[in-house]
What does this fold into?
Amino acid sequence: MFSYYVRLALLSLRKNILLTGLMIAAIGLGIGAAMTTITVNYMMSSDPIPQKSERLFHVQLDNWSPNAPYNEPNEPPDQVTWLDATNLLQEGRAFRQAAMGGTSFVIEPSQAEQKPFIASGRATSADFFPMFDVPFLYGRGWTASDDTSQNLVVVLSKATNDQLFGGENSVGETVVMGGRAFQVVGVLNDWQPRPRFYDVSTGPFNDVEEVFVPWSLKEPLELPLNGNNNCWKPVGEETFSAFLRSECVNSQFWVEFEDPQDADNYLAFLNNYVTEQKKLGRFERPLNNRLLDVMDWMEYREVVAEDAIMMMYMAIMFLVVCLLNTVALLLAKFLGRSGEIALRRAVGASRRDLFLQYTVESAMIGIAGGLLGLVLAWFGLQGIGGLYGDMTEGLNELDLTMVGFAIVLAIVSTIVAGLYPTWRACSVAPAGQLKSQ
It folds into this structure.
């Protein structure tokens, strides 16, 4: 019976190509606009490390001014001080822990024809790479002993390795950065988490850094700060060491637990740590330390921008307008076939049979509109990529989930839009229509 309804639907749609085309275009435009914005929001809010996001936690310590919170109503800073990150790293109370902060280097290529260039960098600890499941093309990350010994080692991004060594295995080679020779211990494979959850302070959709060096080198090499820096009190002395030991927040600290339940014990440890620091005249505010896992952290930082959410709502409203137009077109189409409906009722077709027939016809329009909408959504996403450039890389792609969602949305929307026209068509009195015919 279903195949019979499909044949009837195809015959009906072919009878009036113009009206059918208008309905498919209306659905396609609505689906295209909605899916463009829904896809961007979906990719922005997707889990960047689903295999362990519930075991990774971002640390917040409230070292801010006793006179006012960092953010209202009573929010702690988003970052921690270099001193606290270093202290927590030395304590080593978690399964893994990573202190980190943005920096930059002037790289001097060994090839005479290549000019020096500035590369974005990240000073971090050895656990960074296994903690965030960072893939390697060559070599590995440095060891904890490299951190302790302040060895001049570096991990290169794939793009930087391509630029400096033509994509060859550069492990063991030397790279001159900031006038010092660093030994390459590893080269990353393609790795671009979206969002860049481990540091959203300068933008959650920025690219991964080009070079990575040990955290312990930040003080002896006086590595520059590349990221946000917020202070609530002036630095005592105009020295780099005094700046690092100030109350300025400019670093991130992440921990990984084998069991997410260990977060409660670690939070208790943080409270004890802050209590001890209070005895040294620090942390003048009441205890307000926090641990947020990856998804809670992204929600807290509102990684999905408000304007993106607003655009999605506007696109959904546009889809509703398109559906209202489709309702009018379906109503005109179905009621225009009153004589055919009356004849079918007269020869024994029930209202249920007619309802199923026209529901199938609505669904067929939805499928065609959904396919058109996918094409329009693809063009829309490419337009967003062209407008915003590399910052939308990985956000303007239709995956299988979004393709399936688009088709289902189109079919369900069209069926819902066709309910009223279908009900009106099935309510036609056959006697009156046959008499008029």
Remarks:
- The radius of gyration is 30 Å.
- Residues 431-437 have pLDDT under 50 and may be disordered.
- The chain is about 50% helix and 15% strand.
- The longest strand covers residues 96-108.
